[in-house]
Design a protein that fits this description.
mainly beta, about 45% strand, 6-stranded antiparallel sheet, single chain
Length: about 180
């Protein structure tokens, strides 16, 4: 007699399932950029600040000339300009007139001793990415700060007019200061 014995299937004979494999890659690129927000003023002495946007602002010296002597009065203001630069970059700050120039005047030099003046130099200072620079606007009207890395925080700007000097000719005195960030290539 022949007997048949049924044995359970072994693991070795279990069905083998083929598996597939795939790969999905995600990528993107962040372009180099410097982003600025509106500046915030502090420590103003004989100066006001207003009309601030990310691209412009206005500093007004309350009383430029001393009413008794007609000489410049001291004025100063500090600005904090919030900035994020995500790559190496250069900060350039430049004065268009090299100082406060009376409307209609052409001479961008201080008046001779005892003369009447229509130009006032001022101190311009900047601190950014671990570097601090201060210049006299009528001597050097540009500040350059290079940063080899990405940086975020506040650019600290300071404007200060000294008291005294030549008697000022009556009129409106103005300058434009350009603050520019340029990302490295």
């Amino acid at each position: 007699m022949i007997a048949a014995i049924a044995l359970p299937p072994s693991l070795a004979s279990a069905q083998v399932v083929d598996t597939g494999q795939g790969r999905v890659e995600l990528f993107g690129q962040a372009p180099a950029a410097c982003l600025l927000r509106a500046p915030i003023a502090s420590n103003a002495v004989n100066a006001t600040f207003g009309n601030a946007t990310a691209t412009s602002a206005e500093i007004q010296i309350v009383q430029l000339a001393n009413p008794q002597t007609a000489q410049p009065q001291a004025a100063s203001i500090d600005l904090a300009l919030p900035v994020v630069c995500n790559s190496a970059h250069r900060l350039t700050i430049r004065s268009l007139n090299g100082g406060l120039l009376r409307d209609g005047a052409t001479a961008r030099v201080p008046a001779p001793a005892g003369g009447l003046g229509e130009f006032i130099g001022y101190q311009l200072g900047a601190r950014w990415a671990g570097t601090e620079v201060s210049v006299e606007s009528d001597v050097t009207n540009i500040i350059l700060i290079d940063s080899a890395r990405a940086s975020a925080g506040d650019v600290q700007l300071r404007f200060a007019v000294s008291a005294g000097g030549s008697v000022l000719i009556a009129g409106r005195y103005a300058d434009a200061v350009i603050v520019e960030f340029q990302v490295a290539n």
